[in-house]
Write a structure and sequence with these properties.
Strand content: 25-35%
Number of domains: 1
CATH architecture: Roll
CATH topology: Pnp Oxidase, Chain A
CATH class: Mainly Beta
Number of strands: 9
Distance between the termini: 45 Å
Radius of gyration: 17 Å
Structural class: alpha+beta
Largest sheet: 7 strands, antiparallel
Helix content: 10-25%
Shape: globular
CATH superfamily: Electron Transport, Fmn-binding Protein, Chain A
Length: 151
């Protein structure tokens, strides 16, 4: 294999390896950004999505997470957020990218904090993922939940 072909193949491999997979985090999410959906009901068909957040060291960080929609609005959450870096980074810079299958979207996170806001989101997680316990508090730590809005 000639050097340009090898370099191209290596670059394609590295770019593909930069997205998260299951529990392995990644860097940037690739693809063409689509318009922000008015209704996120289609996310009921996705068990996992990828979210990309900004980091303090200027390299994006992405993870796979669960998501739910309530009345067409998309929500994401972090269980035991103190045990992970990405929730704090998202608090510092709420602009994110989301990848659902091959579709890429930009959004902004708005943390929800009142019981009236959190309860329907928690119930949606229980229903979608058939959870035996309420995700509002896990291992004695309150979970964090965000509404995804357009930038």
């Amino acid at each position: 294999m000639n050097k340009p072909a090898f370099t191209t193949l290596l670059l394609v491999f590295l770019l593909g390896a930069c997205e998260p997979s299951d529990t392995r985090p990644g860097l940037w999410l690739s693809g063409e950004v689509e318009a922000f959906p008015a209704d996120w009901s289609f996310t009921d068909n996705f068990q996992q999505i990828a979210v990309q957040v900004a980091t303090p060291y200027a390299i994006p960080h992405s993870v796979t997470i669960w998501c739910v929609q309530v009345e067409g609005t998309l929500y994401i959450g972090a269980l035991v957020p103190e045990s992970k870096s990405w929730p704090g980074w998202a608090e510092s810079d709420p602009d994110i990218k989301l990848k659902l299958g091959d579709r890429l979207f930009e959004g902004r996170l708005q943390k929800i904090v009142t019981h009236d806001e959190i309860r329907p989101v928690s119930d949606a997680y229980i229903d979608k993922y058939q959870l035996a316990t309420d995700p509002i508090t896990v291992e004695g730590s309150p979970s964090w939940f965000w509404r995804v809005t357009a930038r």
